[in-house]
Amino acid sequence: MYITDYQSPVGILTLESDGENLTGVYYAGQLNKDNPNLEKVNQDEQEIFKKVSTWLDAYFKGKNPEINFPYKAAGTEFREQVWNELAKIPYGETVTYGEIAKKLAEKRGKKKMSAQAVGGAVGSNPISIIIPCHRVVGQDNSLTGYGGGIETKKQLLACEHHNLDDFKE
């Protein structure tokens, strides 16, 4: 696995790749960089990192860039289903944990599913920003926990032209 750092308006992000796919976007302190299986490289040494960096540059300028690189988030079947739902949330929109739970319950042929279980899967998303877990809010439009912190979640929503007064803390 390869890693590189990307300097963003929300702090340093660590990008992780298997050499072909983006496998992680982590905030400071989320990834153990001392792991001997990780090789730190310059952004321009891996094509995937160049593409992701270009995408992030555009995103942080308030644009809605098309994802033109492969990514792979590895997890349990349930987590991967949740992450697939997250990837469908359009730029500039938000959904609740309950709405995701309802969609997944329907797909699985169940009457209902726990929004808390969905929240656990959202919280374990390894590819922050690209798989937009920051677009998930509480039932009352509250800005609930986020791996990068609530202030970072606010900054990301502001990048997508949200009026932050619409949300509760």
UniProtKB/TrEMBL annotation:
- Tell me the Pfam families matching this sequence: DNA_binding_1, Methyltransf_1N
User: Per UniProt, which keywords does this protein have?
Assistant: Cytoplasm, DNA damage, DNA repair, Methyltransferase, Transferase
The record ties this protein, via InterPro entries, to: MethylDNA_cys_MeTrfase_AS (IPR001497), MethylDNA_cys_MeTrfase_DNA-bd (IPR014048), MethylDNA_cys_MeTrfase_DNAb (IPR036217), MethylG_MeTrfase_N (IPR008332), MGMT (IPR023546), MGMT_N_sf (IPR036631), WH-like_DNA-bd_sf (IPR036388)
What top-tier enzyme class does this entry carry? transferase
Q: Cite the Methylated-DNA-[protein]-cysteine S-methyltransferase DNA binding domain residue spans from the record.
A: 77-161
- Any coiled-coil ranges, and where? none
Per the database record, which ranges form the Methylguanine DNA methyltransferase ribonuclease-like domain?
Answer: 1-70
Write the Enzyme Commission number(s) for this entry.
2.1.1.63
Query: Catalytic positions?
Result: C133 (nucleophile)
Q: Where in the cell is it found?
A: Cytoplasm
Q: Provide the GO MF annotations for this entry.
A: methylated-DNA-[protein]-cysteine S-methyltransferase activity
Q: Which domain of life is it from?
A: Bacteria
Please give a single GO biological process term from the UniProt record.
Answer: methylation
Catalytic reaction(s) noted = a 4-O-methyl-thymidine in DNA + L-cysteinyl-[protein] = a thymidine in DNA + S-methyl-L-cysteinyl-[protein]; a 6-O-methyl-2'-deoxyguanosine in DNA + L-cysteinyl-[protein] = S-methyl-L-cysteinyl-[protein] + a 2'-deoxyguanosine in DNA
One Gene Ontology cellular component term attached to this UniProt record is: cytoplasm
Q: What else is known?
A: This enzyme catalyzes only one turnover and therefore is not strictly catalytic. According to one definition, an enzyme is a biocatalyst that acts repeatedly and over many reaction cycles.
Family, per the entry?
Answer: Belongs to the MGMT family.
Role summary: Involved in the cellular defense against the biological effects of O6-methylguanine (O6-MeG) and O4-methylthymine (O4-MeT) in DNA. Repairs the methylated nucleobase in DNA by stoichiometrically transferring the methyl group to a cysteine residue in the enzyme. This is a suicide reaction: the enzyme is irreversibly inactivated.
Report the protein name in the record: Methylated-DNA--protein-cysteine methyltransferase
